[in-house]
Amino acid sequence: MEVRAIVIFRGRVQGVYFRANCAEKAESLGLHGYVRNMPDGNVEAVFEGDRPGIEACIDWNKTSQPYARVEAVEVTWSEPRGDLRGFHIRH
């Protein structure tokens, strides 16, 4: 079953290739969505796909980003909109 997750990553997540690494991982898991820097220094990611894939992507970003230090993650789950194709970095 497809789901949507809006995820806020807090910590040292800007200026450390977080978005590029997140996008590469999401693509490898077949997820749709986008990742973008927020003005407050956090990173927002929107994932659509199967829940286990999204959970794996969130966990990878929390624990395995090579240069980032994620201190907190907020996840909001919802029904997918189906309006996202591919995975993109938004500027």
Percent of residues in β-strands: 35-45%
General form: globular
Radius of gyration over C-alpha positions, nearest whole angstrom = 12 Å
**Sheet with the most strands: spatial strand order:** 4-1-3-2-5
From the N-terminal CA to the C-terminal CA, the straight-line distance is 30 Å
What share of residues is helical? 25-40%
Oligomer: single chain
Largest sheet: 5 strands, mixed
Topology pattern, helix = H, strand = E: EHEEHEE
Give the tally of β-strands: 5
Would you tell me the overall average pLDDT?
97
Q: Count every helix, treating DSSP H or I runs of 4 or more residues as helices.
A: 2
What does this structure look like?
By secondary structure, this protein is of the alpha+beta class. It has a domain at 1-12 and 27-40 and 56-82. It has helices at 18-28, 51-63; strands at residues 2-12, 32-37, 43-50, 69-78, 87-90. The longest helix is centred in the middle third of the chain and has 13 residues, at 51-63.
Observed structural traits:
91 residues, 43% strand, alpha+beta, single chain, 2 helices
In short, what is this structure?
By secondary structure, the chain is α+β, with helices and mostly antiparallel strands. The protein has a domain at 1-12 and 27-40 and 56-82.
Helix and strand layout, with pairings?
Elements: E1 2-12, H1 18-28, E2 32-37, E3 43-50, H2 51-63, E4 69-78, E5 87-90
Parallel strand pairs: 2-5
Antiparallel strand pairs: 1-3, 1-4, 2-3
Helix pairs in contact: 1-2
